[in-house]
Amino acid sequence: MASITTSTASGSTQSKIGSFPVEQVEQFRRQYPDYDEEESEFPLWIEGVDTTYAPFIPTSTRRVLIALDMVRLSSADKVLDVGSGDGRFCFAAVSFFGAQKALGIEYEQDLVEKSTELAQDLVDQGRILFQKADLTNWRDSPTMQSKEWTVIVVFLSPEGGTDMEEWLVQEFKRGVRIVALVFDLKHLKSLHCSLEDTEEGIWVYEKQQQ
């Protein structure tokens, strides 16, 4: 994979993605296929997963790696992916960037099971875990209130609701770095966008350095 340039407010920064072994990247792509609007029917069909009532459009493997690179993910980080789909962000966080731990929260039990299957080796090692979200009390759950997460990945549409926004502001103030996909969070004035790639639809929010 060639090096990728991402846009920032102060210029550009060169990605390190090109240093990943080609075979590792290709295996990642085979394991987590990209969605092609021109070739695939909607919603995306995944073997063993019923997406009839909850359409699933996965983030491309390319965007996954770019986003985790932009947030400077490292072995010191613990990642929480809210709405983890097939688990590709969690898998990449651990296998490519060496994150200590990654937890994916997903609303569909079928996707929780599929995610676990795809990352079974890392799940068995205790590096990755997937959980089904309880929509009735998600905010009060021990997982969401845990102080161990250093990076949060979120796909929050404008209809996502103020409850989720309030939680993100709470975590930002605690020092958590937030990766927003497709929809930016600039309407949340309490957040500071430190890095963005508008072409890819990726925004990174983190506290300004003192």
Describe the 3D structure:
The protein is α/β, with parallel strands linked by helices and 210 residues long. Helix content is 28%, strand content 20%. It contains seven helices and nine strands, in the order ββααβαβααβαβαβββ. The strands form two sheets. It has a seven-stranded mixed β-sheet, with helices on both faces. α2 packs across α3. The N and C termini lie far apart (36 Å).
Spans of at least 5 consecutive residues whose pLDDT stays below 50 are 1-13, 37-45
Sheet/helix structural class: alpha/beta
Termini gap: 36 Å
Mean pLDDT: 83
Largest sheet: 7 strands, mixed
Helix content: 25-40%
- Report the order of strands and helices: EEHHEHEHHEHEHEEE
Q: Can you describe this structure in just a few lines?
A:
With 210 residues, this protein is of the alpha/beta class. It is 28% helix and 20% strand.
SSE layout:
Elements: E1 5-8, E2 11-14, H1 22-31, H2 61-70, E3 78-82, H3 88-95, E4 101-106, H4 109-118, H5 120-124, E5 128-132, H6 142-145, E6 151-154, H7 162-173, E7 177-181, E8 193-197, E9 202-205
Parallel strand pairs: 3-4, 3-6, 4-5, 6-7
Antiparallel strand pairs: 1-2, 7-9, 8-9
Helix pairs in contact: 2-3
GO molecular function, one term: protein-lysine N-methyltransferase activity
Pfam families: Methyltransf_31
Domain Methyltransferase: 74-137
